[in-house]
Amino acid sequence: MAFMKYHKLYLSFAALGAVSLLTLAGCGQQASGHSGHGKYAANQTLNWTELQELSTADLSKVTDTVSFTMLQSTQEGLYRLDAKGKPQLAIATHARLSNGAKTYTFDLRHNAHWSNGDPVTAQDFVYSWRRTLTPKTAAQMQSYLFPVVNAKAINAGKLPASALGIHAQGKYRLVVNLTKPVAYWKTLLAWPLFYPENAKVVTKNGNRYGTSSARVVSDGPYQLTKWNGTSKTWTLAKNPHYWNHANVHLTAINYQVNESTTTSYNIFTAKKADETLLSGQQVKNNLNNPNFVKRLPTGTQRLDLNQKKVPALRNVQVRQALSAAINRQQLVKNVLQDGSVASSGLVPVGMGNNPQTGEDFSREAGVPQATAYDLSRAKALLQKGYRATHTHQLHLTLSVGDVDATKQTAEFLQSSLEKLPGVKIAVKAVPYVQLINQQSAGNYQLTLSGAQSVMADPNEFLDNYLTHTSDNITGFTNAQFDRLMDQADNQDGNQPAVRWQKLVAAEKVLMTQQATIPLFQQAKSQLLRTTVKGIIYNPAGVPFDFTHAYMGRA
Q1: Residue 411 shares a structural domain with residue 352
Q2: 447 FRET partner, CA 20 to 30 A, in 163, 256, 413, 521?
Q3: Which of 311, 335, 322, 418 is nearest to 377 (CA)?
């Protein structure tokens, strides 16, 4: 990814694995609020770079990491994750569980307000969740809400939104009813999809809601400004209406989009930015730089194959042949060169451990042949696939985002796949937001898909390939896989060991059938000025939280 799209992995966003800090100093501490005194610099402005633009400010419709990061900074829900990735009460002041852990009752703080001065109420949560699930909203990640009573039927148009199992009891009490116990539910509630929305503002703007900074309001630490919907710069300004604004230190976070890390690196070097993502050679050149920060998030890149657009891709041997023609070790070591790790399966490292043995899921569920490079085997498989599909060639278009690192990966794949007889690959690079739309509409033949987990649980990635899910953009279908996932998600929730084995078996089916072609788990190394303090980094879920960030004295 440059920054990756959140398909319904699990989510991406997986067990919110180990959380680390970009810097430990000052994180979570309460500040005096006096910039220019003690540890705080006089200028509390952070300049940040991105490789991709914002797609939307409408939390019901967001699917990409850049936009989710913006929402985590400008909005707030019942919980917010702390420096250890644990959910802590935010808009909620108290939570009670009942009905066998299927009913949650939340008391909300009375001093939370939107940036237009309106109070944040329980009804704002009810409205938001109902809106996300209403079919006409056309949300893409709404399945995370499906544990709520009647959510799935509402999304299918079979029940009215008023039947959803979320209710306001007065202005400041919220009751949520689930269909089953969900162990990671509080963690999900800290994710922007579950945040409230201001019905008055949404209704006023209609279809234009969230399409510019003027058409959205905030209840979080910052508010979005200076974004016209397509601009490659925007600013998060400190929100004076935020209930905890006294402990927000930054006055502004200025963003600028540069598709090339060469450009953002030069801007960083010129001291016009405080952060830049690094590409392969830049990583090698900066290993001893005091500003260097290395990390390996639970984000992956894979090659998705559209079986609906290309009939030959419905043949498992054709799909296996394409996978076997790709040398992933060569890709990460010689092309990316940024610390990325070759994938051994769909689910990356760090997405959960066997509750009995502690074994990482990716090791236990691996199907070696699904990601092993063997060009001779690939050619033999393809010949069998050609015979079975009554064809003799594959002329395919590979759709990717117009980011340098993505283009390099695409060129490597093009070269690798064209070593197979009769295979020709045309690479089509398009703006990132356009690529997201094309993937969602199934308007591609081959595409590079980036996926980031919402929490550290294997079903974050596996659920993307269920037959009847909007996140399945490939057309893959397998009854055994669907059955295993249904049992793991809906039958074995209170039996961790049994559930684990079902998920392992599901991954093996997925990889044996080569439903997709995993490529690598992508490193996200950066240069971050040592004067930037207090940013929380989370390898699973939304990566950056700037709530307690500040600029330290040099």
Answers
A1: yes
A2: 256
A3: 322
197: in domain? yes
Work out whether strand 45-50 and strand 252-257 pair parallel, antiparallel, or are unpaired.
Answer: parallel
**pLDDT over 70 percentage in the chain:** 93
Query: Got the DSSP string for 100-119?
Result: TTTEEEEEEPTT-B-TTSPB
Identify whether residues 67 and 183 lie together within a single domain: yes
Claim to verify: residue 510 and residue 535 sit in the same structural domain: no
DSSP secondary structure letters along 343-366: -SSSSPTTS-B-TTT--BHHHHT-
Distance CA 143, CA 131 (A): 13
The tokens for 451 are: 């996926």
The CATH number of the domain where 495 resides is what?
3.10.105.10
- Among 277, 338, 294, 228, CA closest to 49: 277
Within a domain: residue 132?
yes
Residue 177 placed within a domain: yes
CATH number at residue 248: 3.90.76.10
Same domain, yes or no: 172 and 54: yes
Query: Does residue 12 surpass a pLDDT of 70?
Result: no
| pLDDT at residue 494 greater than cutoff 90 | no
- In sign, the C-alpha dihedral spanning 332, 334, 335, 339 is positive
User: Do 427 and 272 form a contact (C-beta atoms < 8 A)?
Assistant: no
Tell me how many degrees the CA angle 83-87-92 measures, rounded to the nearest 5.
125
pTM score: 0.74
- Please check whether residues 112 and 197 belong to one and the same domain: yes
Both tokens assigned to 169: 């009891």
| End-to-end Cα distance, the chain | 33
| Domains held by the chain: number | 2
Q: Are residues 233 and 332 in the same domain?
A: no
Q: In a 3-state reduction of DSSP, which class is residue 57?
A: coil
49 contacts: CB under 8 Å, gap ≥ 6: 255, 256, 257, 258, 264, 267, 268, 273, 275, 276, 277
Q: What crossing angle do the helices spanning 316-324 and 375-389 adopt, rounded to 10°?
A: 160
Shared domain for 448 and 326, answered yes or no, is yes
Domain range for 335 is 299-521
30-66 pLDDT, tens digit per residue, is 333 444 568 999 999 999 999 999 999 999 999 888 9
